Amino acid sequence: MGTGYTYQCKNCLRMGSLTFGAGMLWYDYENVKSALHWQFRRQLEEFEKVNGYSSKEYSLNLYTCPKCKTIHSRFWLRATSQDGKIFETIFKCPKCKRKLEEVDEEEFDNKNYACQNCGQFEIEYITESTWD
Ligand SMILES: [Zn+2]
Ligand SMILES: [Zn+2]
Fold it and tell me: Whole-prediction pTM value?
């Protein structure tokens, strides 16, 4: 199950979308690979070349920047090799270059997060959708 939101900033009117969870789409590993940023895809291929087959966990997660409090959806993946080595995607804020921190979907409240464009805490939801 996944949930998607479209939002708009009341201050600068910039629109955006956020997605949580993992839908049916991700049961196909080819889709998973194409959802990864190309740099992560290359790192993962390299990791598997060195460490052999790995088991994988992945989902669309929400992240926030500890400095500017902007909110981002990112496709997270962790691969664990047979001998316990781990490859995990790590994300940085495009503005501050700080490491993004994961946000628990249960605790998510749009009032606590800032617009990626203007930095104001004026995010308002427009639509919500779910998929399998
Ligand atoms: Zn930031
Ligand atoms: Zn804004």
Answer: 0.83
